[in-house]
Amino acid sequence: MKEEREKIAILGCGWLGLPLAKSLLSKGYEVKGSTTSESKLEVLKNAGISSFQIQLEEHQIIGNMEDFLKETNVLVIDIPPGLRKETSASNEMTFVNKVKTLIPFIEKLGVQKVVFVSSTSVYGDDSPIVEITEETKPNPDTESGKQLVIAETLLQSNPNFKTTVIRFGGLLGEDRHPVKFLAGRTNVENPDAPVNMIQREDCIGIIEKALDFARNDNWEWNLTFNAVAPQHPTRKAYYHKKADILNLPLPTFAENSESKGKIISSEKVERILGYSFQKEI
User: Fold this and answer.
1) 58: Cβ contacts below 8 Å, ≥ 6 apart
2) Under 8 Å CB-to-CB from 54, ≥6 apart: which residues?
3) Are 142 and 123 within 8 A, CB to CB?
4) Angle, to 10 degrees, between the axis of helix 17-26 and the axis of helix 200-214?
5) Residue 258 has pLDDT above 80, yes or no
6) pLDDT tens, 94-144?
7) Please, which pLDDT band fits residue 1 given cuts at 50, 70 and 90?
8) Which residue(s) pair with 188 in the sheet?
9) CA–CA separation, 228 and 198 (whole Å)
């Protein structure tokens, strides 16, 4: 147990945020968590999390953001863009505007450090396939990726607080695996593209490592990390293996098309945070 309980606010206690909150509680942090669903408030409360119903909209925030961020050491922002894949006028800057609405509250309540959960989708896919590091310039090919890049910049360029960005690859868990959506499909593209995925337990471990560093005022905080398991089998090999293990029909791939993709390096997470990946994908 820590001598002084640090207060962590998690904006978005969903698939990743809720188990992260529970893990932080077990390590002695005082945790506040938000949800958009009134029915989920009791779930958070029963887990020992100070629960808040908060809804970010483009031009306002519904809910008690003041109490949510009051006396917070670190704010973890874990709200997915939730945008359609194709670029359209209806998407505009929906997610970016929500982040712009949030920033004045971070400033006003004096939060000094932020963890922003982002995605490796900010890099897009290339042909030929190349290795990607944090030094690689983002080149998103989806609307959500484009808005994540802008949101990252808004947060990291703000002089009133410091933001560490963690770009996770495809998220995996016992209740979540993309092979279930690909099973039995035909003509699936990019058979030779490498996969870039990460288990939920490793996502939590990496965020917790970053929070450990947040307590050290001598450590540079405005950093960006890629977070992907070190295994990168091809899509065809990986999904065939997983479908076989789960007794699902194998997907068939478009063998004659050129594969586009990327290999995401997590060397910086291992070197700077000292994190060792715990689970294979």
Assistant:
1) 94, 97, 98, 101
2) 11, 34, 35, 36, 61, 62, 63, 64, 65, 68
3) no
4) 50
5) yes
6) 999 999 999 999 999 999 999 999 999 999 888 788 899 999 999 998 999
7) very low
8) 253
9) 5
Which residue type, as a one-letter code, is found at position 1? M
User: What is the identity of the amino acid at 54?
Assistant: I
Statement: the pTM of the whole predicted model exceeds 0.90:
yes
CA 164 – CA 21 distance, rounded (Å): 18
3-state secondary structure of 54: coil
Q: Give 273's strand partners.
A: none
Helix residue ranges per DSSP H, the chain? 17-26, 41-46, 65-69, 94-108, 143-156, 179-182, 200-214, 235-245, 267-272
Give the chain's length. Answer: 281
Provide mean pLDDT across the span 157-170.
Answer: 97
**pLDDT tier, 4 (very low <50, low <70, confident <90, very high otherwise):** low
pLDDT digits (tens, 9 = 90+) for 139-154: 998 999 999 999 999 9
Find, among 214, 212, 230, the residue nearest to 222 by Cα. Answer: 214
